[in-house]
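YM 10:42: Diacylglycerol kinase sequence, as discussed on the call
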Amino acid sequence: MPTPSSPPERVAAIIVNPVKVDRKALHAAVRRAERAAGWSSSIWFETSVEDPGSGAARTALDRGVDVVVVAGGDGTLRAVAQELRGSAVPLALVPAGTGNLLARNLGLPLDNLALALRTAFAGSDRLIDVGVVEAERVDGTRDTHAFLVMAGLGLDAQMAANTNELLKARVGWLAYVDPIMRALRDNNSVRVRYQVDGRATRTATVNTVLIGNCGTLTAGITLLPDAAIDDGVLDIVAFRPKGLFGWAQIWVKIFWENGVLRHSTVGRKIISMSREVRALRYLKGTEVVMRLEHPEEFELDGDAFGEAIALKAHVEHLALRVRVPRG
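YM 10:58: structure's back
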């Protein structure tokens, strides 16, 4: 029985995606981190196809844990964050996916298990925004989901829907080559009626729309250069290429301007003197509503969520606590 002066026992929930993680190695590392931080033994959960992490997170909250540690990819993080948002319980990351986009945007280590767990048990808390999407299905039903990195439709969503998960686990981003080539070959486009922050409704024909809570992809690619994960704003980009020349303009903008020029004073001056390309349209807002000409696949943080005829996205400002290294 603890004395009145004894600090309360602290306990973590560990939510593991067994497809992504070597559980035996993780268990040993967690035990070392627990002892070093003076925490009690953690509660363990495994995700499954039926429960990608939401149910485990709800159970963890009900049991009064002090931190929820997610060992998995962005999809697992998204499912857990959906339940943790608005609570006082922080989310800690042990990156183990293909993209690890949230970890990249937070500047967290990707390949240092000991540091990730030290951060989970003894790090600081940082508040970040959470994106929320309400999808209207073809039959008129609606469902709501959170996202941490990006929501997308068009080419981006087709990649998520058509990528083989087993192949993705084995070869990483190479698994996207085939769905990308098929989507580009089909040259799909969709007509969208959209409204940002209640302003006038506009219409556009697009290949892809991405709504970002943060802007960096793998390999340091900056898709949304002005995006910040705690600014209370969603950054939106629409791809509107016309043929190969349009795709070339997009490539130059994303890989050359955002990826190279933006990182130097001279480069930023060059960007300021260049004109925006018609193949890309950037927008910002706290809420965006889109109604589509026909049903389209959409994705959240790299996971396919089926078809929708309309999407409404908004930002919940500073709704999620995330563990980051001290200092």
